[in-house]
Amino acid sequence: MFRMKDVSKVYRTEMVETHALRDLTLEVREGEFVAVTGPSGSGKTTFLNIAGLLEELTRGEYSLDGVDVKSLDDRARSHLRNEKIGFVFQSFNLIPDLDVYDNVDVPLRYRKLSRADRKKRIEKALERVGLASRVKHFPAELSGGQQQRVAIARAIAGDPKMLLADEPTGNLDSAMAREVMQLLEDLNAQGTVVLLVTHDPEIAARAQRNVHIVDGHATDLDRGPSLVKVPAAVHA
Amino acid sequence: MFGYYFDLALRSLKRNRGLTALMIVAIAFGVGASMTTLTVLHVLSGDPIPGKSDKLFYVQLDPRRANSFKPGEEPADQMTRLDSESLLHAARGDKQAMMTGGRAAIEPDRGGVGRFLPFDVDSRWTSADFFSMFDVPFVAGGPWSAIEDQRATRVVVITQALAQKVFGTAEVVGRPMRVEGTEMRVVGVIGDFRPVPHFYDLNTDDFGLGDQLFAPFSVAMELKLHSNGSMNCWGDGDAIPDQRALGAPCDWIQFWVEADTAAKASTYSDFLVSYSEDQAKAGRFERPPNVRMRDVSEYLDFKKVVPNDVKLQTWIALGFLLVCLVNTVGLLLTKFLRRSGEIGVRRALGASRREIFVQLLVESGTIGLVGGALGLGLAWLGLFAVRHQPTSYADLAHLDLPMLAVTFTLAIVSSLFAGMLPAWRGCQVSPAIQLKSH
After folding, report:
1. Residue B331 phi, psi (nearest 5)
2. pLDDT one-digit tens code per residue, B285-327
3. Touching check for A98 and chain B: CB below 8 Å?
4. A158 contacts in B (CB within 8 Å)?
5. Cβ-defined contact of B350 to A166 (cutoff 8 Å)
6. Is the ipTM beyond the 0.85 threshold?
7. pLDDT tens string B175-208
């Protein structure tokens, strides 16, 4: 599903060169729920941005669902991102001018689906997160937990293969956080890969697999450091 | 996607009403000022006789004395009566007409005294081909003939408005009409004929209301009817009693020729050179042959018909539009960069840079559309003000359909142009940074 090999990301300015990721190798298979942890500034978000095709890697290889992303131009990357990846952010990132229905519609618009098809998918996604009755509400009229559920509905409306969640419970109280985590687990149970960045050990503990990033290096806490690197046989 | 982008644009414009209003007003003022001056320029510089302007030529010869001759100088501005009549009788063009402006008193006929008081009308003393050369539209009757020109038959062609004023009807063909004390027969009534500019005679009012009465040149000379326009004499021309006499050394007549092909025009030009050489041999012309044939647009350019202040105003207004656009660029840049968060979200959800660029451009175009509508209103007000100026073209300053289209095109193209840089900057927003900080 997802394979990174020796991925490095370097940010350069005139004065400084910052290595955000160093030779990171990681494979995530179909159906996995992976928690990515690490201290602030360790490279977690950079990793998530590269995984989500929001940033380009400096060195290494990355293939998503069999597609080598390094060779893609902006249009193809955007298309791939739209088709394969759903995003859930800590601060929800709903568009305040759009009501719930239109917010969930955003990724579908870029897929150029028919109005009827979009409607079907939006209603299904909102039903899955339990907000079918709130379609006409604007984000400001919803609680934090509800906003995050809308964001999840938006992420899953296009049936992505992978959900990338960056601290999805960071702005929620514990009850709402549990609710959101349950939703992510349900989605994972239905086959969606979930890659979740978190600071919270309790949340991380609910994942099937934990990857810890420190100074741009990744360690698989469940399988041990040696297993994080993809074996040669897997590459072959 | 266009409908979606348009819907998003409307939502976005509603969100920042103050900023939106500022941009719309900036574009509206720029467009309004530009369209006011462009419309005046368009009216004044339009083709007065579309379809024929490249076939009609204003002819100039140079019969003046040799003592003041400077090589390369322009020939005499107008033509002498002798040369005009010679060229008219030679009839070497497809058509030709000689003419001068005039003014004549219209009087009630003897039987109808008291129906109206005598009044003067702008007139034209010309020859038969004038009407067909300049596409004069007849509503009744027709032009007089070349034979009537030669015989100086007392005939006139009048406008429908004059017919209504004198007779109370336009059906007056064949009826007598008293002009400067002489009874003349109406042979034709013409409809609306007001070429803008008044290209066939730029010695009178370039943008005036036009002539109301037309009579044979020969008749005007026999009856010594009054002439309008400029006259330039040389030699003993200033001293002779009748400067309009056949052999007087004075230029005061406009001469036009119609040549339907470039080859015919070239042949006619050769004829003018040969005519000038013959006149030199005969001792009339002292200068080397110096002839000009300018088609309508060349002649209008040569005579600088569009006033320089109108051109200057147009440049100033376009400069003002540019200033408004620069302001709009700044405002759009602020507006789009304030929406970096939303742009980042859209990029993350699958929008390519190109899609964001088009979305933001549609928003700029929407501002232009509204600005254009408001600008149209301002242009209308501007033209209303122009119509109240004491200029001869004041009443012509109206927006026509092409200028209406130009207004919206100018507004939308300007706003798209203004939106290019902000939209480009907007689509370069890094989604990764925005999503974390949003």
Report:
1. -70, -40
2. 999 999 999 999 999 989 888 778 888 888 998 899 889 889 8
3. yes
4. 350
5. no
6. yes
7. 999 999 899 999 999 998 888 888 888 877 767 7
Interface of A with B in 136-155 (CB under 8 A): 154
Taking the C-alpha atoms of residue B244 and residue B248, their distance in angstroms, rounded to an integer, is 6
Contacts of B362 (CB under 8 A, 6+ apart): B2, B5, B6, B8, B9
Does residue A74 sit at the B interface (CB-CB below 8 Å)?
yes
CA distance B425 to chain A (A): 16
